[in-house]
Every structure is written in C-alpha cells, then in structure tokens.
Amino acid sequence: MSRVRMTNLIEKIRMLTRVKQTHIKIIEGSKITVRDKIFINVFRKNTVRGDTDYHYDTFKIPVRRWTTVLDALLYAKDRLDVSIAIRYSCRMASCGSCGMKINGIPRLACFTKVSELEGDTITCMPLSNFPHIRDLVTDFSQFFDHHRDMKPYIHNEYADIKLEDALITQNEDNNKNKKLLREFKQTPAGVDKYLQFSYCIKCGLCYSACPTAGADVKFPGPQALAQMYRYVGDNRDNAIKERLNIVDNQHGVWRCHFPSSCSVVCPKGVDPSLGIQLLRGHLLGYSKNEKKIAELFNKDVQK
Ligand code: SF4
Ligand code: FES
C-alpha cells in the first residue's frame, strides 16, 4: 500500500474518532428538562390490515425526571389506548427490540429519557428502511437475513473436531494431531481489534439511519458489515477470503458513501462505519499493514 493511501485511511479513522468524541460530549452535556407532563404523538397505521393512510394520536402523559419514552408509551397503552402496537422486552438497552424514531432520530425508547428531549411534545415514528407492520412495529426479517448472510460465527476447521475424537487424540498423544486440541489464544491487543463490534445488540438503529440501506435493499447495511469485520478481525477465524468474497460486490462494502450516521446513532458505542472502512482495507490489500495502521492510530489517539 502506498504511503499516501495509508495516510488517507488513518486520516479517515481520526475523523471518525473526532465525530464520535463530539457526539459523546453532546450526550454528556445534554440539557435535562424536568417536567411533570408531556404530550406524546404516536404514529398510527396498520399496514398488515391494508391501511393506506397514517395519522398521529396524541396522549398526555404524567412524567418524572427518569421516565423513559418507553415508560410513557406503556402508560398510554395501559391506560389510554390499548391498541397501540410497540415492540419491547428487556427495558434496559440490551435486547434491541424498542428501536423507533423519536423526534426524527433512531433511538431506543427504553434508553431515552423524556427529560433529555427538547420541547413538551415527543413524536414517535417507526424506524425507516424497514417494512412497516403496525404503529411503531417494523419487520426485521430482511435485516436479520443480511446478518445471517455474513455467517456471524467463528469458522475454524480445528474447532469442528468432535469431543470423542478429541479425547482419542489426547489419549494417543499423537503429535501430528495435537493441534486439533489446541486452545485458540488471543492477546488483549487481538481482542481489541474486534471487541467493540461484538457489543452490537442488533437493534437496527444504524440500518434505519443509513441512506444507502434506504436506496438499495441488497446492501447488507452497517450492522451486517460491522459484524463481518468482527469475524474478519478475530484471529480465531480462518475464513477471511470467503468472508471478503461475500461483501466484495456492487451491493456490498463499496456501496457505503461514508456518511457515518450509523456510528452516531448506535446506542452501544459500536462504530459500524469504521468496520466498513477496515473491511475495505482488507480488500485493498492493506491487511498486511494493519498492525502498522493500528500502531500509528494508537499513537495519534494517545497524543
Ligand atoms: S451496530 Fe449499534 S445501532 Fe447497529 S444494530 Fe448494532 S447496536 Fe444497533
Ligand atoms: S426494550 Fe430491550 S433494548 Fe429497549
């Protein structure tokens, strides 16, 4: 790789870090507004039933400082209109079920306090780029298909050995086959290469924020591509070539225009656009220098 190309890549990674840090500062410094009530506009449409028009229903909800948007929606569902459709489960930003657009931005309803939002009226809409089902609920089938296409599990033929065979090999103390029993060791630096990408909860917020996913349904999207990098960057996986072939096509990794909106909305600190750039680096043959890039990058971050 030429020095110029490497410098460009490092500059892009630096820029991403700056965007991320700015975003974190905005969240940390965000204004808290304590109110005792809010109005919540809820998108209403039953696409499965064949509705062609939508409307918003407005509910007045009593709130406290720690009331989340999900709490407010559940209050409306429990006491004011039982027919509101919402998807949720854990209520603690772990399951990724409650994604929706809150005041136009993809967010987790259980992870967004009403006191952090501006204005006394909150508008909840379904996520963009997903087929709509009803009210705030969208269909994740296509999103999960893209995720599955990335083969999101470790590929390593040595990991496929059956337990019985492993025990036999151990008893025979056969040096030739001993490697079949080896541990898959990783250094802390090796884990750091992919760790942040393993925090993904598959909430789909990044996919909803991605302009390319909205324009091309065959584009795997930031979540799936970041998961692809999660396994490409894992030294226990030895199917890098096959993996890169999956994303090296006109609908694949090259379709990303690098707007980075995916990284800004992620509630778990994953940086999918960085994963996409690192995948491109592998495809362009940067991988041999990846260690060098990481060293330069770390040096820069520590400055
Ligand atoms: S990368 Fe972030 S925003 Fe995208 S699905 Fe995973 S957790 Fe959600
Ligand atoms: S309910 Fe599980 S992430 Fe919000």
Termini separation: 25 Å
Please give the share of residues in helix: 40-55%
CA-based shape = elongated
Give the CATH superfamily of the largest domain.
Alpha-helical ferredoxin
What distinguishing features does this structure have?
binds FE2/S2 (inorganic) cluster; binds iron/sulfur cluster; alpha+beta; Fumarate Reductase Iron-sulfur Protein, Chain B, domain 2; 2 domains; 303 residues; two-stranded antiparallel ribbon
Care to describe what's here?
The protein has 303 residues and is α+β, with helices and mostly antiparallel strands. It folds into 2 domains: 3-26 and 141-154 and 185-302, Orthogonal Bundle (Fumarate Reductase Iron-sulfur Protein, Chain B, domain 2); 31-138, Roll (Ubiquitin-like (UB roll)), CATH 3.10.20.30. Helices cover 40% and strands 11% of the residues. A 5-stranded mixed β-sheet has the order 2-1-5-3-4. It has a two-stranded antiparallel ribbon with strand order 6-7. A hairpin with a 2-residue loop joins strand 3 (99-102) and strand 4. Helix 3 (141-149) packs parallel to helix 8. Mean pLDDT is 85; it is low at 22-28.
